[in-house]
Amino acid sequence: MKDKILQALSNVDDPDLKKDIVTLGMVQDLTIEDNKVTFRLVLTTPACPLKEMIKNACINAIHHLVDKDLEVNVIIDSMVTTQKRTTGDALSGIKNIIAVASGKGGVGKSTVATNLAIALSMMGAETGLLDADIYGPSLPTMLGLRTTRPDVSKQGDKMIINPIEKYGIKAMSVGLLIDEKQALVWRGPMITTALRQLMMDVAWGELDYLVVDMPPGTGDIYLTLAQQFPLSAVVIVTTPQQVAVADTRKSIEMFRMPAISKPILGIVENMSYFSPAELPGSKYHIFGKGGAEELASEYGLQVLGHLPLFQSLAEEVDKGVPAIMQDNPMIKTEFIQMAERIAQQMAVLNATSALAEVKETVAN
Ligand SMILES: Nc1ncnc2c1ncn2[C@@H]1O[C@H](COP(=O)(O)OP(=O)(O)OP(=O)(O)O)[C@@H](O)[C@H]1O
Ligand SMILES: [Mg+2]
C-alpha cells in the first residue's frame, strides 16, 4: 500500500523544481492507518505560494491512482534548502547568503535588502541582514538603530559580536560598531578585515537566509565578498531609467566574470511606478517602463518584482520604520511577493546544483 501511494505521489511535480516530489524527498513520515493516509509535504521555501496547488495534486493523485475512498491528510511543512559548501567555516549555520547589489548608487539596494530580510522573516524563515557598505552603512538608519550598540563578548581570544534583533531579523553593520565618520578614512585592506569580522565574528546562529546589503559599484568589496565568502547568489536592483539600466548591466557582467562567477537570482525594479493614494489602482510609470524586462531578456533572468515609489511613507522610513512595517497593504504585498519569488529561485538553484552533483557522482 505504501509503495502504491508513493508511486501515485511520484506523478506530482514541484512546478518550480520541475521534478516529482518523491524524488525531491518532499514526502516524509508517510503512515497508513485503516483508510487514513498521513504524510508531511516538506516544501523548500517558507510560505510557498503554490502549496495549496501541490497539496491538492497529491490528494487527487492518491484518489485517482490508489483508492478514491482514502482519507488523505497532508501536513504542510517547510525546510529551506542549502548548497553543499566546500569550506567548513564560521558561517556553516547559514543556509543561504544572498547579496543585494547594483552597479548604481541610490537605486534602493539597502531598501530592498532591509525589506526583503523582514519579508522572509514574516514568511517564517530565520533571517539575518548584513550591511556590507563599510563606507556608507545605512542599516542603523533603516532599522532605527543609530544609538544602539551590540553586545561584544570574548570567547578565548576571539571577539564574538551579538547581532541586534529588530523587526524579527538579526542585523549587523559596521555603523553599529563605530562612529559614522570613522570608517571613511579606512583603506582597502582594513575594509577587507572589517568585512571579514562582520561576517565571521558575529554570532549569527542558525539562519535560513542572510541578506547582504552591498555598497554601490563594482570595487574591492565585491571581489572580497565573492571570493572569500560563500555567497550563494545575487539579487540585482535597478530603476527603470536607462542610466540605471546601463550601470546595472555592468554589475551583471561582473557577477558573470569567471573570477567572481556568482549565480544571479533575478532583477528587482525599484521606484517602478507611482500610485496616488486617492487612485490606488492606477500606476504611473514616471521614470519610464521596461528597464528590468530589458535586462532580464538580455541575460535570461527573471524579474523578481516591481516596487512602487513610496513617497507617502518616506517620513517614517527616515525614522527607521521600513516600508513593509508600515500600514500599507499594497506595498507590503509587493515586498512579500518579491521575497517569495527570491526564496523560490534560491530553492530552484539549490535543487539544480544538488541534481548536478548527483549526476557528477554517477558519472564518476
Ligand atoms: N521605492 C522607493 N520609494 C521611495 N523612496 C525610496 C524607494 N526606494 C528607495 N527610496 C529612498 O531612496 C534613497 C536611496 O535608497 P537606498 O539607500 O535604499 O539606495 P542604495 O542603492 O542602497 O543607495 P547606496 O548606493 O547609497 O547604498 C533612500 O532615502 C530611500 O529611502
Ligand atoms: Mg545602500
Structure overview:
By secondary structure, this protein is α/β, with parallel strands linked by helices. It folds into 2 domains: 2-78, GMP Synthetase, Chain A, domain 3 (2-Layer Sandwich), CATH 3.30.300.130; 94-359, P-loop containing nucleotide triphosphate hydrolases (Rossmann fold). It is 35% helix and 22% strand. The protein is built from 10 helices and 15 strands. The chain has helices at 2-9, 51-65, 109-122, 139-142, 188-200, 220-228, 242-256, 291-299, 314-318, 329-363; strands at residues 13-14, 19-20, 27-33, 36-43, 71-78, 94-101, 127-131, 152-155, 158-161, 164-166, 169-173, 207-213, 233-238, 264-269, 303-306. The strands form 4 sheets. Strands 10-11-7-12-6-13-14-15 form an 8-stranded mixed sheet, sandwiched between helices. A 3-stranded mixed sheet has the order 3-4-5, with helices on one face. The protein has a two-stranded antiparallel sheet with strand order 1-2. The longest helix is centred in the last third of the chain and has 35 residues, at 329-363. It is globular and about 70 Å long. It starts with a helix and ends with a helix. The structure holds adenosine-5'-triphosphate and magnesium ion. Residues 105-111, 133, 136, 138, 215-216, 270-271, 307, 309-311, 314, 317 line the site of adenosine-5'-triphosphate (ATP).
